[in-house]
Amino acid sequence: METGSKYNLTEGGILRKLLLVAVPIMGTQLVMMAYNLTDMFWLGRVGSDAVAAAGAAGMYMWLSFGFILIGKMGAEIGVAQSLGRGDKKAALAYSQNAMLIALVLGTLFGLTLVFFNRPLIGFFNFREKEIAETAAEYLFIVGFPMPLACISSAAVGTYNASGNSRTPFIINSLGLILNITLDPLFIIVLGMGVKGAAIATAISHIISSFAMLGALLFFKARPFERYPVLFRPEWRKIIQLLKWAVPIGLESLLFCFLSMVTTRVETFFGATAVAVSRVGSQIEALSWLIGGGFGSALVAFIGQNFGAGKQERIRQGVKISLITMTIWGSLVTLFIFVLGPAVFALFLPAPELVSLGRIYLYILAFCQLPMNLEAVGAGAFKGTGRTIPPSLVSVITNAAKPLLAWLLSRTSLGIYGVWIGVSVTALIRGIWVCVWYYLAEKKY
After folding, report:
1. What is the 3-state secondary structure of 138-206?
2. d(Cα 106, Cα 238) in Å, to the nearest integer?
3. Nearest-CA neighbor of 283 among 28, 34, 23, 27?
4. Which of 60, 275, 352, 375 has a CB 3.0–4.6 Å from the CB of 291, allowing a cystine?
5. Mean pLDDT of 197-218
């Protein structure tokens, strides 16, 4: 990578370079959240059953991130470290092989959604058969563009690693605009409800994915001058990519699966409880999506500087990131307490649902700061290729989450106990990752 280049993260002001990468990634994360919020907003006009159905199906869309992250994070780490060493040939090879991995995983998961949608939704054991049938239909539709979504994310990882996160943000924003336009058309005007939301989401993902791949091949600010679509797989690089990314993917898969187990505990209290938690989780996602975006930027920053051997710059980058995310986490906590219930009412306006949503948000507010700090610690580990420590912490704390939620739900706390279990384990996870990174670096 050329010294002085705009996207060279090994030179220049640390905060400025971090924000150069982080702000567009945060924007992309907000776009992802806005996709879900747009669905929830219009489905809330149909009824809480529609929100519950889309929320249950959405858990499997969340599960897909475990597969998506393997290609994306593999590309981010491999491309960033190679560019930091000035080895563009290796960077290109890591990107190409990450795309191949993403294509295979995306195809397998997409076919699973298409052919096994009903058994998958059956996991939640909904008492309302209409909700289960509607959710299964949603999965069938969104399963088709899954391969495109996976390889598009690997392309995003390549862009992020090169320091140019602006292009993915622009493309994903255009996809959001399309989704915002199509949602009311399919859900309300055509009266298709949850099925309409699935169709709108699928169309938006297909178009934005093709745009992302086109950008990698033809846009002026693309990471590589030439990007051959046909290439010979390099098994050594595929193995290295899997070593880096599989722990992250498994972490995400287990995180989502165990959250699904927690959701099953929620279904004991009825579809209303599921709808409230799904909408509430989208609102508090404002915190962890932004934190995750900053953590992803830190992976690219540390990856390039690790490849260049600039240890002091890495330490300063982590310190600045911790300060920044402490401020953000505190602001989000304040936002949830002051404005959270009003925002919730936009999606589920019924007074009894707003009252329940307020309690959900207040309980989850206490883990927002630790979740943002977790993103920094995890991103710092991943940038150097040490992906096992944050993944191990995530697996252990998330394994405890459904158990704690179930135990507390059996007390007088009821549904509140489920949410307290979620908040407590998230708080522990954030503190644990940061302390582990601090001790590891002190020893190093």
Report:
1. HHHHHCCCHHHHHHHHHHHHHHHHCCCCHHHHHHHHHHHHHHHHHHHHHHHHCCCHHHHHHHHHHHHHH
2. 16
3. 34
4. 375
5. 92
5 compared with 406, residue with greater pLDDT: 406
**b/e sequence 342-369, b meaning 16+ C-beta within 10 Å:** ebbbebbeeeebbebbbebbebbbebbb
Task: Name the band, by pLDDT with cuts 50, 70 and 90, for residue 444.
Answer: low
Residue with tokens 């007390």: 411
Question: Do the beta carbons of residue 309 and residue 6 sit within 8 Å?
Answer: no
Residue 215 CB-half CA count within 13 A? 26
DSSP 229: S
Measured CA to CA, the distance from residue 442 to residue 444 in angstroms comes to 5
Hey, which bits of 284-380 come out as E strands? Answer: none
Q: Write out the two tokens for 224.
A: 């590589």
Cβ–Cβ under 8 Å, residues 307 and 80: yes
pLDDT tens digits, one per residue of 395-418: 899 889 889 989 999 999 988 999
Q: Report residue 418 as tokens.
A: 């489920």
Query: Helices (H) and strands (E) in the chain — how many of each?
Result: 15, 0
Taking 80 as the threshold, does the pLDDT of residue 426 lie above it?
yes
Give the Cα separation of 133 and 52 in Å (integer).
Answer: 12
CA pair distance 176, 28, nearest whole angstrom: 10
Residue type at 21? Answer: V
What tokens does 22 get? 């982080």
Q: Residue 284 phi/psi, 5° resolution?
A: -75, -10
Distances (CA, A) of 316 to 12, 18, 162, 321: 13, 11, 20, 9
User: Residues near 127 by Cβ (< 8 Å), separated by ≥ 6?
Assistant: 267, 270, 271
Percentage of the chain beyond pLDDT 70 is: 97
Q: Is the per-residue pLDDT at 224 higher than 80?
A: yes
Higher pLDDT, 299 or 128: 299
Say what the pLDDT of residue 443 is.
65
Dist CA 369 CA 367 (whole Å) = 6
Torsion of CA 260, 187, 49, 401, to 10 degrees: 20
